[in-house]
UniProtKB/TrEMBL annotation:
Superkingdom of the source species: Eukaryota
GO cellular component term, pick one: ARC complex
Stretches with biased composition (Basic residues): 64-81
InterPro entries referenced in this protein's UniProt entry, alphabetically: Arb1
The organism of origin for this protein: Aspergillus tubingensis (strain CBS 134.48)
Transmembrane feature ranges: none
Disordered, as annotated region: 1-85
Biased composition (Polar residues): 22-35, 44-53
GO biological process: regulatory ncRNA-mediated gene silencing
Name listed for the protein in its UniProt record: Argonaute siRNA chaperone complex subunit Arb1
Pfam family membership, one: Arb1
Length: 479
């Protein structure tokens, strides 16, 4: 027992050995092959074992893994900057001989037109990027033309279904447009549908506020019509489709002018005539009305200002017979105006901007007023409105065509063009000229009202009594 030692003393006499040097996540050491006896670090003069604990180097910097950078697509091919197919100078790429042969069989004239239109719609929507606003206009145009638009019932697909289909079947399954069999006997007129949609339906359903919104609609429809021509979808209607494209160009030029005239009419001269002689302003005007709207800094129209505007218009742009007759009736206090009945408005036949002599006259004597030009028009009745309730005798009697002569400021006259239709009340002064009030609606030169808009959302009538007796659910029936 005398040879036993205290464990604590034994621990004090044992030398400390430093741990093997390891660098965490060191790729060089991880890739090294197993060491051979000749390459052991003990044989090196500066091996960790031969160094003291205090001299052992400690590495704090660790190698960082480099992340792989994904190859980014250019800005022109991602997000909102991605090409849509509706750019100004965009054209379809030339087709290959294989594609030509496939389309020649697909759009063969022997196939029904409805089937060819359906196939063309599928491929057109696949090759174009229709954004939300453009898509709304395009689908409404198709519905206006008789195409069924909407998600097909039981048309949901999952990944397993798509894997079992080819590209043509996937295209058919994802389709949202179709032409019903009941539409196959309707008259086909691409030009009439375009004119009816752009001139009668689009301006008052979508209410475009900018010129770009108008171009969005006309360019989209024209692009689709060009696609039909390029791929020879319905060659028997190529001339009609070309006329429809021309109608799109006309609507692009005219719709914004219509919108501007409706917003800025009737102008100072016609407003003054309404205040002085008869009309909406004459019935609501109160002399010496001192009330002032704090949010409206525009000067108020008074009878004194109105007389000045009317007199300078007659002296500058009017004829001598008008001015003399106006002065004579004013002196006799017999000047009056009468509203013309049995018309909806007028159609512009000629526009005469103020000449240089009229501009000089205004610049010299009334620089605070806008020069006035002339507008020639004829009576117009809107074919899209119900007919007037006339007796048989009145219907037989041929009413002579009424022609009008208006005065209008140059800043508003610039939006007028021959063929424009303006729906507004028209008044006639007994001195020989006319004036009108606010324009309720304005139509283009190719205005075409159709009954297609009445068929939007129409459903086949059902016998509710029979459906109830058969136990069918009639909750979805629209009366």
């Amino acid at each position: 027992m005398s040879d036993s030692q205290d464990p604590s003393d034994t621990g004090k006499k044992l030398p400390f050995r430093p741990a093997a040097s390891k660098t965490i996540n060191d790729p060089q050491q991880m890739d090294q092959s197993p060491e051979t006896p000749e390459d052991k670090p003990d044989s090196a003069p500066n091996s960790p074992k031969s160094q003291s604990l205090e001299e052992l180097p400690i590495e704090f910097d660790q190698a960082k893994k480099k992340k792989k950078k994904n190859k980014t697509r250019p800005k022109s091919k991602r997000g909102k900057n991605k090409p849509t197919g509706f750019e100004e100078y965009y054209v379809d790429a030339p087709i290959t001989p294989e594609e030509f042969s496939a389309e020649k069989e697909l759009y063969n004239v022997s196939r029904p037109l409805t089937h060819r239109i359906e196939d063309a719609l599928l491929r057109y929507q696949k090759n174009r990027r229709l954004e939300s606003d453009r898509r709304d206009v395009f689908l409404k145009y198709l519905a206006y033309g008789g195409v069924n638009v909407g998600q097909r019932m039981f048309g949901g697909l999952d990944g397993r279904d798509l894997q079992q289909m080819d590209s043509e079947q996937i295209l058919q399954a994802r389709s949202m447009t179709s032409v019903g069999k009941d539409r196959s006997n309707l008259t086909v007129d691409f030009d009439a549908v375009v004119r009816g949609f752009l001139t009668s339906f689009f301006p008052y359903y979508f209410n475009p506020e900018t010129e770009d919104m108008i171009k969005l609609a006309t360019v989209t429809i024209r692009n689709f019509l060009s696609y039909l021509l390029y791929h020879d979808v319905c060659p028997e209607y190529n001339d009609n489709i070309d006329q429809a494209r021309n109608s799109c160009d006309i609507a692009t030029r005219e719709l914004w002018n219509n919108h501007q005239l409706m917003a800025k009419s009737p102008g100072d001269f016609n407003s003054c005539c309404s205040l002085l002689f008869g009309g909406e302003l004459h019935d609501t005007y109160v002399e010496d009305n001192q009330w002032k709207n704090s949010k409206d800094d525009a000067p108020r129209l008074t009878t004194e200002t109105a007389r000045k505007i009317v007199k300078f218009a007659l002296a500058g742009a009017g004829e001598n017979r008008h001015a003399l007759r106006f002065q004579e009736l004013t002196e006799n206090d017999t000047l009056c105006a009468v509203r013309i009945e049995d018309i909806d408005g007028f159609e512009i036949t000629a526009v005469h901007p103020p000449g240089e002599d009229v501009r000089e006259f205004y610049q010299t004597h009334a620089p605070d007023l806008v020069p006035v030009g002339k507008l020639l028009a004829r009576a117009y009745r809107d074919p899209g409105m119900p007919d007037f309730d006339l007796s048989p005798e009145e219907q037989v009697a041929q009413q002579p065509e009424k022609n009008f002569e208006f005065f209008m400021e140059d800043n508003i006259l610039q939006y007028c063009y021959p063929g424009m239709k303006v729906i507004t009340p028209v008044w006639e002064l007994n001195c020989g000229f006319h004036y009108f009030e606010d324009a309720y609606r304005t139509y283009g030169s190719n205005y075409t009202p159709l009954v297609n808009d009445l068929m939007l959302g129409w459903k086949e009538p059902r016998d509710l009594a029979k459906a109830e007796s058969d136990g069918e659910d009639d909750s979805s029936v629209t009366l």
